[in-house]
Design goal:
By secondary structure, the protein is mainly β. The chain has no helices and eleven strands. Strands 2, 4, 5, 6, 9, 10 and 11 form a seven-stranded mixed β-sheet that branches. A four-stranded antiparallel β-sheet has the order 1-3-8-7, with no helix packed on it. Strand 4 and strand 5 form a beta hairpin. It is globular and about 40 Å long. The termini are far apart. The mean pLDDT is about 95.
Length: about 120
């Protein structure tokens, strides 16, 4: 199985930036698609971004398009979410997820087999 660990969350002022990291435990991560989801207090978990294994295909939620960049470094078994021009509405716990292939329903939580523990992002106004 794939084990994922997120890091990089924290408290930031509106307009600032954060880079979240998703580290995999071993080579089993190779070949997997990766996605980022977020869950605000009292809300359902929602899709943020997804990336294929090669990095050739990416998807973004409309709410973060133009501000966030998803990327990965397969040589290090790490995926990233660069978050720019953060807004208070971005406040949530951010989760990294992985699937064997980039799923057709990339925006649905049920499409992913492995999940990290989450990292808190708080954006103040």
């Amino acid at each position: 199985q794939v084990q994922l660990v997120e890091s990089g969350g924290g408290l930031v002022q509106a307009g600032g930036s954060l880079r979240l990291s998703c580290a995999a435990s071993g080579p089993a991560f190779s070949g997997h698609a990766v996605a980022w989801f977020r869950q605000a207090a009292g809300n359902e978990r929602e899709f943020v971004a997804a990336i294929s294994w090669s990095g050739g295909t990416t998807y973004y939620a409309d709410s973060v398009k133009g501000r966030d960049i998803i990327s990965r470094d397969n040589s290090k078994n790490v995926a990233y979410l660069q978050m720019n021009n953060l807004e208070p509405e971005d406040t949530a716990v951010y989760y990294c997820a992985a699937a064997r292939v980039l799923p057709s329903f990339y925006y649905m939580t049920r499409s992913y087999d492995y999940w990290g523990q989450g990292t808190q992002v708080t954006v103040s106004s």
